[in-house]
Amino acid sequence: QVQLVESGGGLVHAGDSLRLSCAASGRSLSSNAMAWFRQAPGKEREFVAANNGGGDYIKYTDSVRGRFTISRDNAKSTVYLQMNSLNPEDTAVYYCAAGRTLPTRASGLYDYWGQGTQVTVSS
Asked: Quick one: pLDDT at residue 7?
């Protein structure tokens, strides 16, 4: 059974940076697409970023492109989300997910999910 555990969330000011981590256990996910989603209060869960096993095929949602960077260290079974220039609209619970081979924006194609980590950005 695969387990994903997110960490690194917190309360920051607008313009600050945070790095989220997602540690995987149970089996190797080095061939799997990994993604970050987020859900703000009263809103549906939305796609943020995803990459493939090699980390060279990456997707971002438009609102974070140029500010967020997804990366992975397969030796550590960990995926990261570096978030720069944060703004209050980035406030949400951030979830890590593991899927099939190719990264996709479709949440239904991810088989494993973490419990989420809260990111709050004050203005």
From this structure: 98
